[in-house]
Amino acid sequence: MFKQSVLTLQPEHLSELQVRYEQALADNGYDSLLIASGAAPYRYGDDQAWHFQGYGPFVHWTGLTGQEHAWLWIRAGEKPVLWLYQPIDFWHASPTLPEEPWQQCIELRGRQETGAPELESPGRLAVLGDPACLDGAPGDHNPMGLVRAIEETRVRKTDYEIECLSVANRLALQGHRAAREAFLAGESEFGISLAYQQATQQREADAPYHSIIGLNEHAGTLHYQYYDTRTPARPRSLLIDAGVRFRGYCSDITRTIPGPGEGRFSALVHGLESIQRRLCDMVGPGVDYIDIHRKAHLGVAALLSASGLVSGMSDESMVEAGITRAFFPHGIGHYLGVQVHDVAGKPTPAPVEAPFLRLTRKLEKGMVVTIEPGLYFIPSLLQPLLEGRLATHVNGRLIEELGGCGGIRIEDNVAVMAGGARNLTREAERQV
């Protein structure tokens, strides 16, 4: 049923994109635009290619992540033309398209050549795509002004895009449920990864990003990239940051599960989740995203005080002294769309106290963001605190006790609606 609603909404999405792109072309002095889907490059010194997922603007229009050597031509007042690469090949299978309503909005053509197609009367032409795939293509390649304008068309999602992101959340949460069950059953990181993939019916290579699956102290490495095949003797915690790509759109969800008997760590998880839910409720039109980040640090300070990890300081002084940054070093989140860290989020630099923040704009209706506070026990960040002038305020014994749990992150995907926040993740949790 939910997939049918997606199909119904897609033609309206394409009509809106036509309007947005025509305006971007006119503003930058172009008559038409050719977008290359791209192709997977070969590994250096090898005959094997990297996995392919498609160029953002091409996926924005088509939702087709696996179509290499495809080209999309957009002109004012004309139906877009989509050339699909359909070689006669006994080595590889060519992807096929099911019949769907969007195909009435775009003219489909097949071809056996990989280079740019010949265009009839393109006028002043711009071409967007991976420069490695644009050799021989006419027109201006990746003009910066137009690139920025096209990125801006992706900032405010259409109803179709939000529905795709909603479905991606539902599918991912099936995997998160399976991962939780696998962890509690004593599986290794590798086994948890397999359980997630089985539940989502998505290969790791097709996911929007490499899943982060960390047990115990591995949860304290923010982008932990390995899957241990051995289960630790005492499984104390699981941090899983994993999503699903649906019609090109990405979900990005993180959950932290305490192991049996980890009462103190479990209380921290519940405390951070309470903070995270309040931060999600802040999302709405006109809200400065940087303010949400700053509010997160005050929340982390309160949790550090309540748990006894830090004492003798006010929440504000903890933030000002940089203590909360040692426990929560990353930004509160980012845009989400056909890229997991979607584009156009930083028209201005991040503030000095938040160098890793990926979004510095005021929120507007149609934007979709992640909200992901964390609290980690990272030795390289905490050791200077334990040895510095603020050491008397920091409970080293408790940090050592909890250090084996690695850390906590709770992440939801939230759409900005006219009346406030629509939490796509919590909404999906109630449906899965």
Q: Overview of this structure, please?
A:
The protein is α+β, with helices and mostly antiparallel strands and 432 residues long. It has 2 domains: 2-152, Creatine Amidinohydrolase, Chain A, domain 1; 159-429, Creatine Amidinohydrolase (Alpha-Beta Complex), CATH 3.90.230. The protein contains 12 helices and 16 strands. The chain has a 6-stranded mixed beta sheet with strand order 4-3-2-1-5-6, with helices on one face. Helix 1 (2-27) crosses helix 4 and helix 4 crosses helix 5 (189-200). The radius of gyration is 23 Å and the shape is globular. The relative contact order is 0.12. The mean pLDDT is 96. One of its GO terms (molecular function) is phosphoric triester hydrolase activity. Mn(2+) 1 binds at residues 252, 334, 372, 411. One of its GO terms (biological process) is proteolysis. Keywords: Dipeptidase, Hydrolase, Manganese, Metal-binding, Metalloprotease, Protease. It is an enzyme of class 3 (hydrolase).
